[in-house]
Amino acid sequence: MKISVVTATYNREKELLKLYESLKKNYETFKDFEWIVMDDGSKDGTKDLFKKWIKEVKFKIDYHYNDNMGKQREINAAMEYVTGDVVIEIDSDDYLVDNGLEMVAKDYENLDDNVYGILYKRVLGEKDTSMIPELNNKVITLFDIHNKYGYDFDMNLTFKTDVRKKYFYKVEDGENFVTEARLYYELDQLYDGMLFKDVDLVYGEYMNEGYSKNINKIFKKYPKGYAEYFNECLTYIKKDTVFKRKLYFVKHYILFSYLTGVSKMECIKKAKAYKMLVALLVIPGYIKSKKF
Question: What's the DSSP call for residue 135?
Answer without folding.
Answer: T
